[in-house]
Structure formats: structure tokens, C-alpha cells
Amino acid sequence: MNEISIQIPENFEVDEAAKFREEVNVMIGKGEKHFVLNFNNCSFIDSTGLGVLVGIYKKCMELEGSFKLNSINPKVMKIFELTRLDKVFEIKK
């Protein structure tokens, strides 16, 4: 299993999320399906960012891949908890 590690930007919102979606969809189109997202620099995520993560997660699960989130700071983790996405995603602190 070959995991692709991706650094999430400091502010994961509309513009960054759209770019991220395009890049990951290209990788998925090339056969990649195992991703590790590093949130160590991310201090903000909006609903667009969350929606993109959910969409990519669903694609990975359909392809029997993996989708992991690492190093989420407490402020961003609170968003995942409020939206209950902490129960959906595999999160390593």
C-alpha cells in the first residue's frame, strides 16, 4: 500500500479547498487511493474544506482505499467534533 502524504494549508477554505479537490481527483484518476493528510500547519477550516474532505473520503472508501488525518490542532479538532466528523475520519493526534 502506497500512501500519499498531503500537507493541508494554514487556512483550508474555499480557494485552497477547490485546488485540493482538483489535485486529489487527478491522483485518484491515476489510481491512487491511500491518503494521509497532515494538518500540523492548519489553523482554520470552513464548510467548503469539510465538504471537500467528505467527498474525497467517500471516493477513497468506494475504491477500498484509506483516508487518514494527522496532527490536527485543538481549534480545528473542535470543528471536526462539532460536525461529528471525528467519528467518520481516522484521526491520529
UniProtKB/TrEMBL annotation:
Domain STAS: 1-93
Listed transmembrane segments: none
Designated name of the protein: Anti-sigma factor antagonist
GO MF terms, alphabetically ordered: anti-sigma factor antagonist activity
NCBIfam families to which the protein is assigned, alphabetical: ant_ant_sig (TIGR00377)
InterPro entries: Anti-sigma_ant, STAS_dom, STAS_dom_sf
Coiled-coil intervals, chain numbering: none
Record PANTHER family: ANTI-SIGMA FACTOR ANTAGONIST TM_1081-RELATED, ANTI-SIGMA FACTOR ANTAGONIST TM_1081-RELATED-RELATED
Stated family: Belongs to the anti-sigma-factor antagonist family.
